[in-house]
From TrEMBL:
Acidic residues bias locations: 1-11
Protein name per Swiss-Prot or TrEMBL: Uncharacterized protein
Start and end residues of each stretch annotated as Disordered: 1-26, 53-81, 130-150
Domain of life of the source: Eukaryota
Comp. bias regions, Polar residues: 53-77
Amino acid sequence: MSGSDTEDDSSDCSYQGTTEDEDSDPIFSIQEVVQAAGVDFGNFTNLVEYGTTESEQAPPNTPCTTPQAENSCSGTDVENLDPGNVFHGDLTLGRKRLRKPDKQGWTVEQQKMRRMKGDAYLGVVRTKNNSSTSAIRKQRPPRSIGQTCESSKCKKGQTRHCQKFSESRRLYLFHNFWKEMDWGQKRAYVISHVDKISPKREVKKGGGSRRSNTYIFYLKLDGEKHQVCKSMFLNTLGIREKQLRCWLKNDQVDRTTRRKGPYNNIGIDKSQTAREFLDQMPKLPSHYCRKSTAKLYLEPIFTSKSQLYSEYSAHTKHREKQVVSMPKFISILHDMSIGLYKPKKDKCDTCCAYEATDKRGAAEGNCHVLVIDVQAVKIAPLLNASACYYKTKLVVHNFTIYDLKSNNARCCLWDESEGELVASVFATCLVKYIEDKFTDGLPIVIYSDGCTNQNRNAMMSNALLDLSIKMNISITQKFLEKGHTQMEVDSVHSAIECKLKNKVIYLPTDYIQVCLDARTRPSPYEVLYLNHSYFVNYSCKDLQRYLSIRPGSKTGDPCVTDIRQLNYKPDGTIEYKLNYRSVWMTLPRNPILLQETFFPQLYDSRLKIPKRKYDDLQDLLDVIPQQFHQFYINLPN
């Protein structure tokens, strides 16, 4: 499977993991690899220049294997995944909405927030023509409380109570005003603490006074309003007179935009209907990057967003409700962090001859070269009936092993009631293939992606080391990275996908015939449908020679995801490389000496599926022929 999972426009429908950038030495240049394959470099360069755009061309010495670690499954106990939890825990925990601006991180918004809270901020400078420019900013001081009222008139008067407010009480009012309120609340607070009355007397006789009203100011003490002077009011709240006049000029606290009738809630209702439709659709987690992403994928029923929107429109109109537009529907799809389950393999950005040397060695009979990968998850039943869209189904897996010399491939199929996606399952398939096919004692080279759950872990390493000792052969694992995981085994999966198009699948075993029909020349693919008794448990600590394959032991040392190659030797030791050009180094771990190893079976019986899935499968029996019902009825749950 692919090892990358990004959530941008280019990979919205992809089913991939994530990578982390690291610093490492380059491995091979394009020229070195192409010449090793016996290809004329001049002609190859012309093809590359013709076939790539300027933005896609790699620098002169771009390595064929980037030092990016596919650590999407690191940190997970791969032998103890819960088979009964189809949703793999709370997948909504920590999920983020996509394509939404985070204004809290904008500098302008941060300065606005500081200004509203009364802190020092960078303000916009106004020019002579009274226009503001964001290019020039000036540091503005923080708000501060003013002096208390010292007016003798307030001290002697009977109506004003400025002296009742202590300094601590004024500080409380000041802090509450600036730290706990937004601008709307500040304005409402000021308006509610100022009374506007008509003047009691006219200074000018004959009504010539410009004064139309008088303002009376209050501050609260123990829940009661007490009249204070204007200076005390402004100094306690730390506001300026100009700001006060502006707020009092428009003294309607609950001003709203003029409108006719109630709000139109049709748009909200339509969006909610779309969300409910997407909520009830069965989903799958990202297979190899559950730790780094919580994006969910719809089951592989819909091939495009337009097809999904058509089903949504028909479903909503059948319920006699209104539908949202397609752009709005896609926006909701992104907001809910849901993608279409569409496997998308990494394409090599620089060259397609990264394993040219090993391929030539295999052709000359010097070694055996295998390429392994897991196909995108399949489901059963796979029908065109609309009733299937809203039901969870049985998951089927295909682990494929491809021999570069003979071009033969073995497809190992099993459903989720027979086995999980754990390291022991993959190791069993690989070890038994090598035992069946290779008895000539030649070295074996295995290419795969760097998924730690599948290929790069202690269980797989102990299984291959044990096999190396028993068969007295050298086995080398080479891990491909993002941008370079297009492998020959993908042709097998592509052929199966083409043959599966427009096919109806009633049982998981129906995939056997699909795989057999996918290729006829030079020979059909070898297909094995596995049950739970086939798998061997390589996670037993008592039977492991290496409890860990990490090259380092403390913080800052290389991790498992930094390993680029592993070499298993018949003497019971493991060597590793952190990049392809470095020399082999012995793994700094003390192997446990074991005389004989006999690994037990991984499962004693079939695995139980979740009750919800079992109930959904029983509901689907109405659209499945009678002769297939017994299989689904007998599923353990």
